[in-house]
Amino acid sequence: MIFDTKLALLFLIGTLTGASARTECINQCGGIAAAYENNDKLYRCANEDKICNSYVVSVFSQVRVFPNVCNGILLTPKIVLTAASCISAGANGQTTSPDSTKVSTAYINSTTAGPKVYDVDKMISHESYVAGSSVNDLALIFLKKEIPNVDTVKLYAGNPADNAIARIFGYTRQGETRAVGFTSLGLSLIPEDERCVANSYEWKPKENKLICTSSNMATAACIFNQGAPLVTVNPSRRLVYGLLSAYNGTNNSNYVDYFVNLNSQMTWITKNSGLNASSISATSGF
Length: 286
Description:
It is a single chain. The chain is 12% helix and 36% strand. By secondary structure, the protein is mainly beta. The protein folds into three domains: 5-53, no CATH class; 56-143, Beta Barrel (Thrombin, subunit H); 155-262, Thrombin, subunit H. The strands form five sheets. Strands 14-13-17-18-19-16-15 form a seven-stranded antiparallel sheet, with no helix packed on it. A six-stranded antiparallel beta barrel has the order 4-5-6-11-10-9. Keywords: Disulfide bond, Signal.
């Protein structure tokens, strides 16, 4: 028998990091071996500048004629935390129906059924959310069945230090000059990781803001759909601190994105999801 060192190494990586999630990511990479980035629960496809993430999902909803594509994170393989603006539209915040909403482990832009598209059982939007605002822009989506071969992620139950740094992950918006697909963006304190050329980003966690030093919306952090997670950067653990809101604005010619602080919403999340705070949150992320 010929011992294949490469296959053995891939098997070992899969064993140590969760073989099922890695297998799913290899499928998303077109069957190409994927290198695991342990702290992020990310996989990078071999020979491609493509990232597979195993806890961020793509959410599609349609309110009348208004299609909406956004992000969400898996609290469990069956429960998605997303933005309320993802499943509502219009000034009155009209909510879409479960039948008009789908969740996928890949980018999705329709309700077309497929092997990676999952049906929704019910949805709960924050009762105090007002359309056009970032306040309480939070919702839960309950799937009819579990998504197999995925990781889940914990929320950060605390407040970040003044010098804390983070990254934002998610599926980007569809546009003429912007690629559609999963990507990541480093925020201001790690400029070598920034994906936005010639721009710097400032994270203001106490104000729930992300500020890009550009007035060009196409290059601001809002290339991400709402519901994209703001993830802490730590050598030992990554935790989700906030979710990007659909609400944005300008500040002294800089483009501003707002996000929802999940620690401040922990009571709402646990009450409406039926999950214990200890099972979905941690305090050692920063």
